[in-house]
Amino acid sequence: MSVYNDILYPALPVFAQNIACSAVGAVRFRSRFSSHFKRVLKYWERSVDFSTEELHLLQRNRLDHLISRARDHVPYYRDLSPPSTAKDPKQAIEENLSSIPPLEKREYRDQSEAFLARDVGNGRLHRVRTSGTTGTAIPIWHTPQTLAEEYATVWRLRRSCGVEGPSTENMTFSGNIVVPFSQSSPPYWRYNAFAKQHFFSIYHMGPANLRAYVDKVHTIDAKYVQGYPSSIHLVARALLESGKPLEPGRLNAVFTSSETLLSFQRATIEEAFGAPIRDRYGVSEFGVSMTECGQGNLHVDMEFGIVEVDVTEETETSETGPLLITGLAHSAMPLLRYKIGDVGTRSKTPCPCGRAGDVFLQVDGRVEDYIMTPDGRLVGRLDHVFKEQLAIDEAQIVQERRDAIKVFVVPGQNFDDTESRRLERSIRSRLGSDINIEIVAVSTIAREPNGKFRAVKSSVGRINA
Ligand SMILES: [Zn+2]
What we know:
There is one protein chain. By secondary structure, this protein is of the alpha+beta class. It has helices at 2-5, 14-32, 35-47, 52-73, 89-98, 105-110, 144-160, 207-219, 229-241, 263-273, 417-431, and strands at residues 126-130, 138-142, 170-173, 189-192, 197-200, 224-227, 253-256, 280-282, 289-292, 298-300, 305-309, 313-314, 318-327, 338-347, 359-364, 371-372, 378-379, 392-401, 404-411, 436-441, 456-458. It folds into three domains: 2-32 and 162-277, Rossmann fold (3-Layer(aba) Sandwich), CATH 3.40.50; 65-144 and 282-364, Rossmann fold (3-Layer(aba) Sandwich), CATH 3.40.50.12780; 371-458, GMP Synthetase, Chain A, domain 3. A hairpin with a 5-residue loop joins strand 9 (289-292) and strand 10. The radius of gyration is 22 Å and the shape is globular. It starts with a helix and ends in a 7-residue tail after the last strand.
């Protein structure tokens, strides 16, 4: 949220920052929890019990609408074939998709405005940027309806865990810089009174500071925790190390998202917070949502998107490969069979929990590392700094020593000294002034042995079980 990056915010006293958080919270609340949100959530709380055939019929209707709209109003898809007339919904979906070539990120990035539906007024479009998992900035547009449907997937999950609605007291550990970096004593949290949301800074989690987090967590009468698993895990470790885990049952659940949830993180978090984790896989491109059930599997929210696996590995019970996503709620900017860059493993057998539709055993591709600062803080999710850097084609942060990092960038056309300094400032706002930052221009960035790209690699901050 831009308000936290505003030059004024860090200079405000804590009580005024709390008021600012609440004001931002009120605006967000109204935009997310609209009448469309309520209508969709109500319907989806019924469709969650649909059979696979009913879900395919629902998907087919939405896909037909998406394709027709794309043909009529989206320049990039002007020559798309009309929707299939096959009787069987599943067959129709397959026919439609197989006639469309997969969409590469680069293809989208080079002409992103050609994907905008021309019949949407500019006033209804919101623009965000995503860093994806490749360190490449991409602009994405969406309407309030798209966002409302994304939130319907989130709230269907939460409500299934007994969290009633958006005004339930909670603790949030995510990337917003709510506490200025220069602050060196508690409170390392702010409060959005509007949504009863306690925002914890994830940029102040050094060993000494974590004691304050532990004490604060115990004073809050929250029903759930949400945020990045890497950050929640640091607090969980501190809770256990200080011998002060939360009593089991106090929280309904811990909702993680935005990063790959690692198994050692899960065990520690569930023990320390005394509640089960319900992970969610979503992306900034609004094309997919998967939500975890009590059996630990990720169910595709079929109403929201279609997920295909470009299979590279297959066993009797599962198939693995890069995901192609088609967002059914994103008709203002259709991305059909978009190669999101993550790899998933789909189960060939139904989930024992009884919910129908596609089930994934896991989704990888969001495994990032932590950078460890000279004063011992562990900072995750640093790929965020590349979100605002359109002048960079690709980037990677590598740390081999505690006191230094190297930032490898593949410069784009507009990359110059000003952009380089801006990048350094952005990184420094998260890591502090004691670390040496070297920006190195390169022509390519090496991939991991499995072919995947990692935005952040640290051999210093790595945490093992
Ligand atoms: Zn299940």
